[in-house]
Write a structure and sequence with these properties.
By secondary structure, this protein is of the alpha+beta class. The protein has a domain of 79 residues. Strands 2-1-3 form a three-stranded antiparallel beta sheet, with helices on one face.
């Protein structure tokens, strides 16, 4: 085996170890608000997300548990939007939410200032 092949094998092994280790840590379900015009056709809809406005919803022991709750949250959000349960702001825009599961070591709000 050449040095290059050995390095590749070791690199892939390390990647597998790191990936499996991170999958076992805590997971956080995050949400971020978005403003959109309910009158706009779906293909014209634009969503504005602000990274500083991500809020943690809950923490879970596994990625799977987090993804299950994310699916439920997205379903509930879709039902609320379809039933017209979201109030419009002064500009006629409604607020909807995007949900994301991330490892507890990742903060979608970006790095903290010192």
């Amino acid at each position: 085996m050449t040095k290059r092949a050995a390095s590749l094998v070791i690199g892939l092994w390390l990647l597998a170890v790191v990936t499996s280790a991170s999958a076992e840590g805590a997971w956080v379900l995050w949400k971020v608000a978005s403003k959109t015009d309910p009158k706009a056709p779906l293909v014209w809809k634009t969503y504005t997300f602000y990274s500083s406005q991500w809020d943690p919803v809950a923490a879970y022991d596994t990625s799977r548990a987090c993804e299950e709750k994310k699916s439920t949250a997205e379903s509930d959000e879709s039902k609320a939007l379809l039933r017209g349960e979201r109030d419009k702001d002064r500009k006629g825009l409604i607020t909807s939410y995007l949900f994301q599961c991330l490892a507890d070591t990742v903060d979608p709000r970006g790095p903290k200032g010192k």
